[in-house]
């Protein structure tokens, strides 16, 4: 699904030099590399504060702790996402409220958000799934009408831009009150291990978050708030510093691969290609915008509409073509998150998507030959 080795070859010297230096100086935790990475990411994202932490799941949890959410508060999020999003809500004894998504973008449905709001609702967690932002303009409107926090799960869309109706743009993860991302190796900006970060433009919240990640300490051995231990280590920061200047190029390579896939699949009758939400500045070519980075293709996910998704997955496995099913079970049907408040009729789209989606290899090193082999295999299978 990903080719991390190929990407490494191009930045190997830089990474090895930094790692050598870290070992020489032994500044393994919170060393200069972490601080430099933080500043560089703040600049890249055009956000006031980046708070590095240990992984994307922690980033979400720490964001919720920093906002002071309390047990019993309801948090609305998407039924169709990785479990980490809902897990942290439950861990903090907040009440997850799962809602359906849109069939075209796979992102949280804003009408469903409105319908789920109660007097206990305190926050919305949009997930920018597969590399494309949720409908943030409307989510911000809902949040301001109902006085809710917006916590962006940006684990899959780092570097993506979101365009507002007035033409202004913001980077994914910097639009709501707080954003959380992951540097898991296979994400668009991946470390050589675990890593994560929280973003915010709010000075007070940033101060709180910096304490929460560090045992609630603002002054050594004075614990003012309940915190956690969640750190990005210097070696991961060094890897991320080497990759960050290439992130836009990496994302362009993903878009290019998506365009090549689309070219083949757009006319295939049993397949629906991923839809990129259009805005006025989009310049689409084969369904992919090449001008505004509105989709950074963490995953390239097709919908197989003739009921043969599982058979296709089996066929690809036999030919050793990597593929993924993100996600096979709606969160509202997972044992850990079942709740009598949920009604199957409220999740028509997620219930359909879990049967139709399949993700094909997507990374920065895909060759034309690989894409041709993959697409030919899929088309031949579906047409037979
Ligand atoms: C990867 C991911 C996370 C969690 O990130 P980790 O760094 O693995 O903890 C959270 N949400 C989504 C949508 C993800 O894809």
UniProtKB/TrEMBL annotation:
Lineage top rank: taxon: Bacteria
InterPro entries listed in its UniProt record: DegT/StrS_aminotransferase, PyrdxlP-dep_Trfase, PyrdxlP-dep_Trfase_major, PyrdxlP-dep_Trfase_small
Protein name: DegT/DnrJ/EryC1/StrS aminotransferase
Keyword Transmembrane helix: no
Lineage: Bacteria, Pseudomonadati, Bacteroidota, Flavobacteriia, Flavobacteriales
Gene Ontology molecular functions: pyridoxal phosphate binding; transaminase activity
UniProt-listed Pfam families: DegT_DnrJ_EryC1
Biological-process GO terms, alphabetical: polysaccharide biosynthetic process
């Amino acid at each position: 699904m990903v080719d991390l080795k190929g990407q490494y070859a191009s930045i190997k010297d830089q990474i090895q030099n930094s790692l050598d230096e870290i070992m020489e100086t032994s500044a393994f935790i919170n060393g200069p590399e972490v601080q430099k990475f933080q500043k560089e990411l703040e600049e890249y994202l055009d956000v006031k504060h980046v708070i590095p932490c240990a992984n994307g799941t922690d980033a979400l949890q720490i964001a919720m702790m920093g906002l002071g959410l309390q047990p019993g508060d309801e948090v609305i999020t998407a039924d169709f996402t990785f479990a980490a999003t809902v897990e942290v809500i439950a861990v903090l004894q907040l009440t997850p409220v799962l809602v359906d998504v849109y069939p075209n973008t796979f992102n949280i449905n804003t009408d469903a958000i409105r319908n789920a709001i109660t007097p206990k609702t305190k926050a919305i967690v949009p997930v920018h799934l597969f590399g494309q932002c949720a409908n943030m303009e409307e989510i911000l409107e809902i949040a301001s009408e109902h006085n809710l926090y917006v916590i962006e799960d940006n684990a899959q869309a780092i570097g993506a831009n979101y365009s507002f109706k007035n033409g202004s743009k913001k980077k994914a993860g910097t639009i709501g009150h707080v954003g959380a991302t992951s540097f898991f190796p296979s994400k668009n900006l991946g470390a050589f291990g675990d890593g994560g970060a929280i973003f915010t433009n709010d000075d007070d919240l940033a101060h709180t978050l910096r304490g929460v990640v560090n045992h609630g300490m603002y002054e050594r051995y004075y614990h003012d708030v309940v915190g956690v231990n969640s750190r990005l280590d210097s070696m991961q920061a060094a890897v991320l510093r080497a990759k960050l200047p290439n992130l836009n190029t990496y994302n362009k390579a993903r878009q290019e691969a998506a365009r090549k896939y689309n070219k083949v699949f757009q006319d295939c009758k049993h397949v629906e290609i991923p839809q990129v939400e259009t805005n006025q500045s989009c310049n689409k070519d084969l369904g992919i915008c090449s001008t505004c980075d509105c989709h950074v293709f963490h995953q390239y996910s097709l919908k197989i509409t003739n009921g043969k998704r599982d058979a296709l997955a089996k066929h690809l496995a036999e030919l050793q073509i990597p593929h993924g099913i993100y996600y096979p079970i709606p969160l509202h049907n997972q044992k850990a998150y079942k709740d009598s408040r949920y009604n199957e009729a409220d999740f028509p789209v997620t219930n359909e998507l879990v049967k139709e989606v399949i993700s094909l290899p997507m990374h920065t090193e895909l060759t034309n030959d690989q894409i041709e082999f993959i697409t030919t295999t899929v088309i031949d299978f579906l047409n037979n």
